[in-house]
Amino acid sequence: APVAKVLHEGLGIVAGVILGWDIRAALLLGGITYISSSGIIARLLDDLGTTGNRETPVVLAVLVTEDLVMAVYLPLMAGLLIGGGVLDIALEVVVALVAVTIALFAAIRLGSRFSALATNLSEENLLLSILGIALLVAGIAEELQASAAVGAFLVGIALSGPAESGARRVLSPLRDLFAALFFVFFGLQINPADLPPALALAAGLAVITAATKVATGWWSARAAGISWRGRLRAGMTLVARGEFSIVIAGIAVAAGIESDIGPLAAAYVLILAVAGPLLARVA
Length: 283
Known about the structure:
Elements: H1 2-18, H2 23-34, H3 38-48, H4 56-82, H5 86-119, H6 123-143, H7 148-158, H8 161-188, H9 196-223, H10 228-237, H11 243-255, H12 261-282
Helix pairs in contact: 1-2, 1-9, 2-4, 2-11, 2-12, 3-12, 4-5, 5-7, 5-8, 6-7, 6-8, 9-10, 9-12, 10-12, 11-12
């Protein structure tokens, strides 16, 4: 599984180098091809009714690992794009790592206490408390160059027990609303005329990286002693790309380092955001 995960990143970087792109653009393309869509996959598991399957914890473990990798990757790319020295970039990465480690430790050790405080709140107060804490932690994470998304993700890890069940209930409608708005905004940024020239390369990357994602899920599920059907479901479920790939593509476009990366990323995400759920349903 680690070999396959390196391939996700490596294939994107190699493709960027072959295209003659700046190394920063190649690294950004590697990030785009690396990470699965936690949002799409979480909704997919719910829609398919597979949250209780034996392979689902494996899928979630892979997603958690990839999201935490972003805590290192995003500060690294921010430093490279800003053009700081090696020491400056290393310092940003170290600060991000320390911040995420402290937050993760607090989530594991103190999460039960936070959950206990949230258990007796009304639904309105629970919703506002979670949103407030998520914004606070996300803002701190953003200031430390660890990504606001990773900070909010750690808040979710900290919730457990009745508080977690209540949070799911009150946040699910917001999740669906904001996920839809996110992809609407993504669509507004795409000029359909820019997609055809990028479709061939995007389709090739999609096929290859979908295969390596299936391999990741297969090998990870096999290590957990799951049957071949469960391994196949795990692999197919991980194919979808989405929010983080779009965020990374947005960073690349904003940096203005490679004009073709925006259309390529848009076509790539569009293909796998559609194909991923279809493959999961087939599996």
